[in-house]
Amino acid sequence: MENESKKEIMFDRMKKKKKEVKLVRRIVLVIVLFLLIVSGVGGYIAYSYVKSALEPVDPTSEAIVDVDIPIGSGLDTISATLEDNGIIKNAKIFKYYAKFNNESNFQAGQYSLTKAMTLDEIIESLKTGKVYREPLFSLTIPEGLTLEQIGQVIEKKTGQSADEFFALVTSDEFVDRMMVKYPNLLSAEIKAENVRYALEGYLYPATYPFFEESPSLEVIADTMIANTEKTVSAYYDLLQTEEKTVHWLLTFASLLEEEATAQTDRETIASVFYNRLDIDMPLQTDPTVLYALGSHKDRVLFEDLEVDNPYNTYQNLGLPPGPIANAGKSSIEAVLNPTDTDYFYFLADKKGENHFSETYEQHLQKIDEYLK
């Protein structure tokens, strides 16, 4: 009996031990499966994170971001600078990507980059010292164009409707959004009572590269306004010191853009306008009459000078209510750096060359000499 009892105890122990072994195996199996799952999920998350960080921040973005890479910057500094400016998603991954590809010899300088650039394009730009990206097409907006004329250029280049572009850039909704986006550039002055179109003169003349096949009209317009902001911002402090506004600057510059035929003309014509403004003498510039009439003419007639319109500088003192066209940098700088003269008159001869006079009598003599 005693032997049988010992056998039963041993048997029970063996059974319990087998159960414990099975339980341990199950627990180990569950833990292993759990770790595999966690590892797999973690690996997938890590893979997705790295894959995302290697892609452009915003493939559709056309906005230009100025990035300054100081002399002596190492890869760590460059990576951090690119991330701070929103050009890349993750500085560490960019750094490792560059290292793994044995990329080095990056150049210091001022770069105009976009959030749509790939890491390879960014690296190539930093190595060559220039933005390395091939645009799908470029759009050239010349100086001296009105909103309507800009729309026609866009239609010819992209096939998108000039009328739709004009409707967009003159709509209150779009203007209001741009005023919020560019508060230092677009002040309440652009909506003054006599201003014909709020954004006239605010779409900067330049050649614009686009990296998508069919950018929207809004993207195109926004890009041009952003370039005006970029150009004019260099003069904000000076304007504040002189107690002048951006609207005043672009309005004045648009007159020079329409009147001048050479760089020196812009600065000298600016002096004529300043001299007239100083003594409350009408500017009497023909391009404002044409803008008031709303049509182009090869020759302004005497009857045209009588048109009753706030933009007619023959009938109204001072600058017109707003720009009459888009002005380039040379005209903008001529406003701020005019030639010092005593001229009050000028005329363009049949070849388009301007001639300046201090008195009305001298002006009449030049009319006889060059226009008759």
From TrEMBL:
First-level EC class: lyase
Gene3D superfamilies reported in the protein's UniProt record: Classic Zinc Finger (3.30.160.60), Endolytic murein transglycosylase (3.30.1490.480)
NCBIfam families in the cross-refs: endolytic transglycosylase MltG (TIGR00247)
Pfam families: YceG (PF02618)
Gene behind this protein: mltG
GO cellular component: plasma membrane
Protein's name in the database: Endolytic murein transglycosylase
Source organism, top-level taxon: Bacteria
Keywords in alphabetical order: Cell membrane, Cell wall biogenesis/degradation, Lyase, Membrane, Transmembrane, Transmembrane helix
Gene Ontology biological-process entries: cell wall organization; peptidoglycan biosynthetic process
A GO term, aspect molecular function: lytic endotransglycosylase activity
Homology family: Belongs to the transglycosylase MltG family.
Site residues (Important for catalytic activity), renumbered to this chain: 259
Function: Functions as a peptidoglycan terminase that cleaves nascent peptidoglycan strands endolytically to terminate their elongation.
Record keyword Cell wall biogenesis/degradation present: yes
UniProt KW Transmembrane keyword: yes
Organism, scientific name: Psychrobacillus soli
EC number(s) from the headed UniProt entry: 4.2.2.29
Reactions catalysed: a peptidoglycan chain = a peptidoglycan chain with N-acetyl-1,6-anhydromuramyl-[peptide] at the reducing end + a peptidoglycan chain with N-acetylglucosamine at the non-reducing end
